[in-house]
Design brief:
The chain contains 17 helices and 21 strands. It is an alpha+beta fold.
Length: 601
């Protein structure tokens, strides 16, 4: 998308970006209507040809400028000037004429006849990269301040600013919310992800803060304090490895409301998403209400709790007994065999891809045996199974030339996991996950608890989520805990979890009981428990993942678009900032200040 188009969609093209600065115009705004005007431009030297034609670029676009034949001073300045040097150009805007227009530039109908040119700041001669050149991601992250000049990152960061601005305007001006900042120096939180700690200079004691995973407890305390409609663009932290859609520090649009219900919250959150939707994507703007799917139905039909509904295939039972020999000697009554009939995906499947999918799926202990069968792979691999004919399979599943069938067998949970992953992988290879479509979905009715690998009961999301009203008595009696449903909901967009929320526990005794069931020390939560016992209103909230939302919008629905391209200064997957070379080991003086010493294992 062109940068000027984004600026127009964000309402920025009419703003006075040339006030309080020494330029008269930006490099991207001049058109035929400006012919004859005298202008002053400042920007980066982006291109030169024949020591006569140059392209000057700023944050808003680029334009060609020409040097007069007798202007030896300007020619000498440019002769050895490195690209990305800052220059000042003054001259008259001229119509390039029909023969010389450049349709690839938004300013391609005009050019600047230079009357004066000066160098404001000369760039280094050995520039490590140029903004419009392809480079390895490690190089881009190391020299991020140069990479940020690229049209794509300029567009992404301005899109991010526009979306956040729209959210603030909607919540404050149309919904009466209060923007409240909460502390980032907090204390450790029971359960959840690993947290970063911040040591303090406390004599004879080893005391530390924790950086919050979210403002969860603070926003609940604000509800108790009467700030009944709170929001915040919050920085959050998790001491985990970075992934394509996750960073150790990230941004949430955090929302909490008193005296609400789950239906009321979902309606509000749909309004928020529609309100921040960028104008240039109006053609594919989702409409409310969004469809809802229970957690159980999502796992049954799609094998994941965040399905991409653009992919049209579901997991199905195999009622025929033609694959019965796959059971072998397994007598487990829960053994199952299920499939996905992936219509129209034959061209997306190859032997190499199936091997790669097998590697990816088997990286998780939840996987099981599977086979991808089609006429396409049959021709390459020489048949499907010895005990069943090709004709039987084609007849049973009504396969056409362009179809695949994916079969998995074994323990039910492993079958669902395997087919869920393969549905996404084949859908991506077939182009479904790159389509310029947006398919939002609410996943509801999650379990309140789940079991970890050791069989211990843990919160499915966090210990502050309320159970559905019909299951509250089970908490008190500690009965059928694995079957209790939560008032939790996730917003899924194109197979990406855009955020999660819930109705919270507002009763102190119930909150205390759930912490005890989970084996958490209630002393860690005295402040919250006492607040809930001080007249806490019923409340609930939600947090949008800003980085994920912007990446989906910037990618125009393409879920392979990484969040590192919508964050100004991101970390690598190892959690490092290559530009400033951090994290680093603390100095001896720093350790002594806090009373710490490093013991290397």
């Amino acid at each position: 998308m062109r940068l000027s188009s984004l600026l127009r969609s964000a309402g920025r093209s009419l703003l006075p970006v040339n006030s309080n600065v020494t330029r008269s115009h930006t490099c991207g705004e001049l058109r035929l209507k400006d012919a004859g005007s005298t202008v002053t431009l400042l920007g980066w030297l982006s291109f030169r040809r024949l020591n006569r034609f140059i392209v000057i670029r700023d944050s808003y676009g680029s334009i060609q400028a020409t040097i007069k034949d007798d202007d030896e001073h300007s020619k000498n300045l440019l002769a050895h000037l490195p690209y990305e040097s800052i220059i000042r150009v003054r001259g008259r805007v001229r119509d390039r004429g029909e023969k010389h227009r450049n349709g690839k530039m938004e300013t391609g109908d005009v050019e600047i006849d230079i009357s004066s040119l000066s160098v404001v700041n000369e760039a280094r001669k050995d520039m490590p990269l140029l903004p419009d050149a392809k480079a390895h991601e490690q190089t881009r992250l190391t020299y991020r301040y140069i990479d940020l000049r690229s049209p794509q990152l300029q567009s992404n960061l301005r899109l991010r600013s526009s979306v956040i601005h729209s959210a603030r305007r909607f919540l404050v001006e149309e919904k009466g919310f209060v923007d409240v900042e909460t502390p980032t120096l907090f204390r450790r939180t029971p359960g959840g992800a690993a947290e970063f700690i911040v040591p303090t200079r406390t004599p004879a004691k080893c005391l530390a803060y924790s950086l919050p995973q979210s403002p969860q407890q603070f926003k609940q305390l604000l509800m108790v304090g009467g700030i009944d409609r709170y929001f915040q663009v919050a920085r959050c932290y998790r001491d985990e490895g970075s992934k394509l859609d996750r960073q150790p520090e990230f941004t949430q649009l955090d929302i909490e409301v008193s005296f609400t219900t789950q239906d009321g919250l979902l309606d509000l959150l749909e309004q928020v998403l529609i309100a921040v939707w960028p104008e240039h994507l109006n053609r594919v703007k989702p409409s409310a209400p969004f469809p809802r799917l229970s957690f159980a139905d999502a796992m049954r039909d799609y094998g994941v709790d965040k399905p991409d509904l653009r992919i049209p295939w579901k997991i199905e039972e195999v009622k025929s007994r033609i694959f019965e020999k796959l059971r072998g000697g397994n007598e487990d009554p829960s053994w199952t065999l299920r499939c996905i009939v992936a219509r129209g995906s034959a061209e997306a499947v190859s032997k190499a891809r199936v091997r790669e999918w097998k590697r990816l799926v088997e990286m998780n202990y939840q996987s099981t045996n599977f086979a991808v069968l089609s006429k396409n792979t049959k021709k390459k691999e020489g048949g499907w199974f010895n005990f069943v004919s090709d004709e039987e399979i084609e007849r049973e599943f009504q396969l056409a030339e362009e179809d695949n069938i994916v079969i998995a067998w074994g323990a039910p949970s492993k079958v669902q996991y395997t087919l869920g992953q393969l549905r996404g992988l084949i859908g991506e290879a077939n182009g479904w996950r790159k389509r310029e479509e947006f398919s939002p979905l609410w996943v509801v009715d999650f379990p309140l608890f789940e079991r970890d690998e050791e069989g211990k009961l843990v919160s499915c999301h966090h210990p502050f989520t309320a159970p559905i009203q019909e299951h509250e008595e089970r908490i008190e009696k500690e009965e059928k805990l694995d079957e209790i449903r939560a008032q939790h909901f996730d917003l899924v967009l194109n197979g990406v979890e855009l955020g999660g929320g819930s109705i919270r526990i507002h009763n102190g005794s119930m909150q205390r009981k759930i912490l005890e069931i989970l084996g958490e020390e209630t002393g860690e939560m005295t402040h919250l428990l006492e607040a809930l016992e001080s007249g806490a209103p019923p409340h609930g909230g939600f947090a949008f993942g800003v980085d994920r939302l912007i990446s989906i919008l910037a990618g125009r629905g393409d879920t392979s678009y990484g969040i590192r391209d919508v964050i100004a200064f991101p970390k690598t997957k190892e959690g490092r900032d290559l530009m400033v070379n951090t994290p680093i080991e603390p100095s001896r003086e720093e350790l002594e200040r806090y009373g710490y010493e490093v013991v290397k294992k």
